[in-house]
Hints:
The complex is a heterodimer. Chain A has helices at residues 25-33, 53-56, 95-98, 113-126, 136-139, 167-170, 172-177, 229-236, 276-279, 297-303, 321-333, 341-350, 352-363, 413-432, 442-445, 505-522, and strands at 2-4, 12-21, 41-44, 61-63, 89-90, 154-161, 181-185, 188-194, 201-207, 213-223, 261-269, 282-284, 287-295, 308-316, 371-381, 390-397, 403-408, 436-440, 488-490. By secondary structure, chain A is α/β, with parallel strands linked by helices. In chain A, the strands form three sheets. In chain A, strands 1, 2, 3, 7, 8, 9, 10 and 19 form an eight-stranded mixed sheet that branches. In chain A, strands 5, 6, 11, 12, 13, 14, 15 and 18 form an eight-stranded antiparallel sheet that branches. In chain A, strands 4-17-16 form a three-stranded mixed sheet, with helices on one face. In chain A, α1 packs parallel to α16, α4 crosses α16 and α11 packs across α12. Chain B has helices at residues 7-14, 18-30, 42-49, 55-68, 75-81, 93-107, 120-130; strands at residues 110-113, 116-119. By secondary structure, chain B is mostly helical. A two-stranded antiparallel sheet of chain B has the order 1-2. Chain A binds chain B through residues 150, 265-266, 268, 270, 373-374, 424-425, 427-429, 431-432, 434, 436-442, 445, and chain B through 7, 10-11, 14-15, 17, 101-102, 105-106, 108, 110, 112, 114-119.
Amino acid sequence: MFLDFREFEAERDIEADLCIIGAGAAGITLARSLIGSRIQVCLLESGGFEFDEDIQSLYDGDDVGSPGTGSTGCRLRYFGGTTNHWNGWCGPLGDLDFELRPWVPQSGWPISKKDLDPYYIAAQKVCELGPYRYDLDAFSDKTRSFPAFEQAKIAIGFWQLSPPTRFGSVYREELEKAENVRVYLYANVTEIEVNETASYVRSVRLRTLDGKTGSAQARYVVLACGGIENARLLLLSDAVERHGLGNSHGSVGRYFMQHPHVSVASVLANDPEAVRGFSEGYKSLGARVRAGIVITAQAQEHYQILNYSATVDPQPDTSGGYFVLGEMVQNAKRGKWPDEFGEKLWRVITDLDSVSEGLYERARGRRYWPLKKEIILYGRSEQQPNPDSRVSLSEQRDQLGLRKIKVDWRFTELDKRTIRVATQLIGEELGRLGLGRIKLHDWLLKDNAEWPEALWGGCHHIGTTRMSHDFKSGIVDGNCRVHTLENLYIAGSSVFPTTGYVNPTLTIVALALRLSDQLKAKLSV
Amino acid sequence: MRLFIKRRRFLVLVAGGLISTLALKVRQAFSGAILESATPPRAIVADLDQLFADPDSARAVGRRYLELHPEHADLQVLLNGARLGSDIHRSLLKEALDHQRRQDFLRGDTIVLDGWLLARSEIYVCTILALPIGR
């Protein structure tokens, strides 16, 4: 059932067994998993069903650290959250991502990959993916071969591609019909109210943009607002604990990480067609997949680096006569005389091989897509947990009177060394197999802290309310409960202690499903 | 350390295993001969030039390497460094050179010049071409 909080009378109190704050991938997954149970759920969403500038402006803040943070542009504040514009790349974290790695300070999760595997299987379905397989045997076939890389260095890794699932659209009807789930739109949470010892959540305060207020009370509360907003709400809730909830050690908002996405090298390929297998999405085993190159666990340990992946992005060569002819034909259809007609005609005449090859492929119903010999190697890397990379509150306030966020995204020496070493390992293997040679980009060769302007974080906001064994080194325990609060849990990528290289959505959904089981047990259903 | 090599020239250099062919010719020229710490004879260099569509590229790589490592301006040192052992039969040399290149990459025995990641044996063969020509 959907309700518009703006239409309620003032100071309306909502009561439920479970209150979920935020209707993105985590919040919607958690709510859906409880449909049909005896648990009464209220799901609070700041926005409506469509993008709204005023609501979106509540995400405004300052990015004071590295460019490419994307704290405002990346996030969407309406039903479905950031799934309203994600690109669907999915994969599970690897075994090593969960383990304590002596060369990576603050690494290690309080749970293992095995703890999460059953939930990854279920998450595959939620994200409309294929079977829970991400290995080479699953996705290589007679029509597609991959290089036999040295396993001590690199391997082929896979992503599965969600359609992408727009959670707000795909699961809207189901939630509409659910008798035990009420979704409150335009219900902004402004504070989490706790008892005098800050050990228990009493209620959450709500407010609309036009000033209507109310509250929600529940036995359990789950924060599911995303990697930045989860931390913000804890910091804003400072009526009892001056530095915010769960923040006695000053860790809320710290360890902010993303996945640095950046072009790392040019590859001169001896035969660009030989790498085409990695560069396109394709269908296999009922899944849409994309291959890439990943650093093996063995290499991470040997070279003392983080996890890393790269995709090979061939560049289409449209300089040939076939493409010039196509452009001329299109211009003729529009009744337009092409610019530099004589030069273009000369290119067609002198490149009749391209013209004939293109027409032949077209006659066979196939796309003609010759490749340049120069290919781009594009990296997506793990980041080292860094307490100085953080989300905090600025002195500016939003329309609700709440302090805005300030994001200071930072890098470490290990982040850069990982990308350089990993790129060199890829170059060594491409050279060894006779596939080509790489030219590392200049910024990688410098030992300073310079990073390229084009770098961005993938919009993967991670780590700000990290999991840990104890409250001194993190915010939530292995069950995602805030260490210092009996009934407050957190869902989403803010709880990840480390990032791996892989996109976070599948893990977000898996953790939400696992949390659902725990809450069902708590609520004795 | 920076060396400007035009992309197109470099492409020509690596295509078709020309570096391996070059090394074969060098080895054949000196097979059985006692090598002084000398420079390749002019006739040999002329033959080597013809192996490349753009021999200036190979020399550019070699010259830059020599700027940084002048102690390697020695034919025997370069041949040894490229692991062109004297007990390899001439007919197997090309294969041996290809193997050496692969081994260099496997071991991580590489050199980065102006961003290009190359096998040590490749660099050394280019450097031979860059040596001053002898009699």
